[in-house]
Amino acid sequence: MKILLLEDDFDYKNSIKDYLESLNYEIDDFENGEDALNAIYENSYHLLILDIRVPLLNGYELVKNIRENKNNTPVIFITSLTDINNLSLGYELGCNDYIKKPFSPKELKYRIEQLIKSFYFSTNESLIKLNDDFSYDILKKELSKNDKIINLTKKESQTIFCLIINKNQFVSIEKLRCEVWNEKFINESDIRVCIKNIRDKTSKEFIKNQRGVGYKIERVS
Q1: Is 221 contained in some domain?
Q2: Is residue 39 scored above 90 in pLDDT?
């Protein structure tokens, strides 16, 4: 899962980044709003964690910009602001959650996990049921069948996550290239090999495909 972090306090930013990376999140960090905004349009992120008072383009302006351009990536504001008018403005612009400074790393962890579950999986549960007795643990990012964990490579795990969050919808090769391979040049055959390897570890019907459309994993819940 890829997260953008915008925080202009160098030490604070690095401490958050180090902690989230220890939880196996992939973090791109920025110290000003303009660089962060450019990165959002150049890359694909699953979550934006934004300080409000940052140079060049503040957090409010950044969220206003992306929402006007139909980008609905979930946003958590981190801020020392406590005035109700400031908090209201953030929600009106389209943020999903606030966390007030100072906060403990575990509080941020739980806020992220709850937002992931509610936004991408429409549930408060951690375990998603899939067809053929497979299940996926949202927080641990583990795939299992009948409580037996299936060993996956990093790319296989990222591919499964991408397919599951797009609930019962076909995901194109281009979207997989963007979200799993970060838009790096990679042949379609390499993506198909990754899909085949997942099927070899699960079943031929675990990932369905439609020629010219893409791939999907069907969710029961």
Answers
A1: no
A2: yes
The residue from 66, 87, 120 where one domain ends is 120
Query: Are residue 11 and residue 29 in the same domain, yes or no?
Result: yes
Residue range of the domain that includes 208: 127-216
What's the per-residue H, E or C state across the chain? CEEEEECCCHHHHHHHHHHHHHCCCEEEEECCHHHHHHHHHHCCCCEEEEECCCCCCCHHHHHHHHHHCCCCCCEEEEECCCCHHHHHHHHHHCCCEEEECCCCHHHHHHHHHHHHHHHHCCCCCCEEEEHHHEEEECCCCEEEECCEECCCCHHHHHHHHHHHHCCCCCECHHHHHHHCCCCCCCCHHHHHHHHHHHHHHCCCCCCEEECCCEEECCECC
Average confidence (pLDDT) over 16-35? 94
Establish if 164 belongs to a structural domain.
yes
Q: What is the CATH number of the domain that holds 151?
A: 1.10.10.10
Average pLDDT for residues 94-106, to the nearest whole number? 88
As for how many domains the chain has, the answer is 2
Model confidence at 84: pLDDT above 70: no
